[in-house]
Specification:
The protein is mainly alpha-helical and 116 residues long. It has a single domain (6-108), classed as Nucleoside diphosphate kinase-like domain (Alpha-Beta Plaits), CATH 3.30.70.141. 40% of the residues lie in helices and 0% in strands. The chain contains six helices and no strands. It is globular.
Length: 116
């Protein structure tokens, strides 16, 4: 859990800077803490986007996160990367390389590191 500053939120959403909802989005993302996560699985982006629904909650399918909880395009309750490439960029933005690891790979390979 972390809290974004207006500068960091603006940097994260810079791709949307020219869109009409940019200011509302940056402001919303700074209102309180966020929980950042990286989902690793086959078809992660596509499957997660089905779960969260369309960016515009008015256009989101029934029972998706955004249909149920979003207030607007700028306050859409959850962020989901739109591509594998952007997921990598966004994960790197939120987490240092020391914080990123594949837990399944860790347990399957029985690697143990004790930093004493």
């Amino acid at each position: 859990m972390t809290k974004l500053t207006p500068e960091k939120a603006g940097e994260f959403y810079a791709i949307h800077k020219e869109r009409p909802f940019y200011g509302e989005l940056v402001s919303f993302m700074c209102e309180g803490p966020i929980i950042a996560a990286v989902l690793e699985k086959d078809n992660a982006v596509e499957d997660f986007r089905k779960l969260i629904g369309a960016t515009d909650p008015a256009k989101a399918e029934a029972n998706t996160i955004r249909k149920l909880y979003a207030a607007s395009v700028g306050e859409n309750a959850v962020h989901g990367s739109d591509s594998d490439e952007n997921a990598k960029i966004e994960g790197d933005f939120m987490f240092s390389m020391l914080e990123q690891f594949n837990i399944l790979s860790y347990f399957l390979n029985n690697r143990i590191f004790l930093g004493l």
